[in-house]
Every structure is written in C-alpha cells, then in structure tokens.
Amino acid sequence: MQQPQDSRTESNNDMESSPPALSPSGSAKFSIVRVLTLVVVIVGVAAAVYGIRILTEKPVVLVKFSGRVMFNGKPVTVGGMATQRVDDDRDGGVSAFDEEGRFDLKTDGKPGAYVGRHKVVISSMTPTMPPSPLTPSVYASMATTPLFIDVSENPAENQKEFVLAGALPGSAAAKPAEEPPAKPAQAESVPSDSQPETTDVPEKAP
C-alpha cells in the first residue's frame, strides 16, 4: 500500500520542480515588447544625431538687400526683379519696383535674401495687350543676364543700383541701320577744253 503513495509523491515533486511552459499569447507579448523597445532606441539615436547636426551647422539667415533700377536716365517703375543663388539650390529673392524704381528683396515672403552671389533678372512690360518690353530683353533671362549681386552678412553693404543699357526690342535703335540706296550711274561729261578741234572750211567763191 505504501508504494502507490510513493509514486504519487514523486510525480508531484517533478511537477513542482519543472518551470511552467509559456502560453502562445505570452510569447507574442514578449516579442512585441522587444520590437517596441528596439524602435524606441532607434528613434532616440536618430533624434540625437539630428540634434547634434543642428547645433553644429551654422544657421541660415536672410539679410536685407535693396536698391534701384534705372534705364535711359529714368527709374524703372513697372515690373520687378528676381534672383537665384549661383552656388546652391536655395530659393532666390523677388521684389516689385515702386514709383521711384526701388526694390527690396524678399525670400518666401520674408524680408531679405540668402548670403552669397545671386544672378539677377529684371522684367518690365507695358500693361497693354499684347505687352511690350520696357527694358532690354537681355536682362529678362537667367541665361543671358549680365547682372549679379553679392549679398553680405552685413546689411549696410547690401545696396545696389542697376543702370540698364541697350535698345528695346522693335525700336529703331535695335534695328540694323539701312544702307542708303545706290545712286544711278551718271554719264561722264567731257570737259570743254577736251572737245575735238574743228577746222573751218573756207567757202568757195561763186
């Protein structure tokens, strides 16, 4: 009678000593926790790197730049101008002209322009239909304009007056000069002193 009792006791001891098995739901929860922990670590590292980059990089600021545009001795009061940096792809500045031909650059609606060298285009057209240019067309394209500005970190140095030169498209000055018509050939006159001498023939007596 005692041996059956001993077998039950051994089986109970084995059950108590073995670790409990994880259920499928418990294993899934453990995997989700590990994934979430890994994501948090990655995000934290990326945020730290981005923060260090912002602190080490020099902040980009806009600096005031203004001036005036003249053509044929008069201010250009219609139209506007635009700039484009030549050393990177940041946005350039834009400005309309006032009644005195003055401009004040803005970038993305904010006053100022990025520091550096900019190409400048100027466009001024009549309000008629079709419009006619009021300034030479060479200044209206980034490919042909000879105008540049250098925006300094010191706003006191950022003043520029442009004096445009050239003829307007379609104007008389822009057309090549026409050659005068050729004069018709004239017959050369023989000088009187070069006339052939005539000999008087004496009349015969009747």
What does this structure look like?
By secondary structure, the protein is α+β, with helices and mostly antiparallel strands. The protein has helices spanning 2-17, 24-56; strands at residues 62-63, 66-71, 74-75, 80-85, 94-96, 102-104, 106-107, 110-111, 113-114, 116-123, 148-151, 159-164. Among the domains are: 28-57; 62-164, Sandwich (Immunoglobulin-like). Strands 2, 3, 6 and 12 form a four-stranded mixed β-sheet that branches. It has a four-stranded antiparallel β-sheet with strand order 5-4-10-11, with no helix packed on it.
Q: How much is the average pLDDT?
A: 77
Based on the structure given, which CATH architecture of the domain at 62-164 is correct? Answer: Sandwich
Level-1 CATH class name of the domain at 62-164: Mainly Beta
Number of strands: 12
Hey, roughly how much beta strand do the residues contain?
Answer: 15-25%
Give a short synopsis of this structure.
The radius of gyration is 47 Å and the shape is elongated.
Write the layout of secondary structure elements.
Blueprint lengths: L1 H16 L6 H33 L5 E2 L2 E6 L2 E2 L4 E6 L8 E3 L5 E3 L1 E2 L2 E2 L1 E2 L1 E8 L24 E4 L7 E6 L42
Parallel strand pairs: 2-12
Antiparallel strand pairs: 1-9, 2-3, 2-6, 4-5, 4-10, 7-8, 10-11
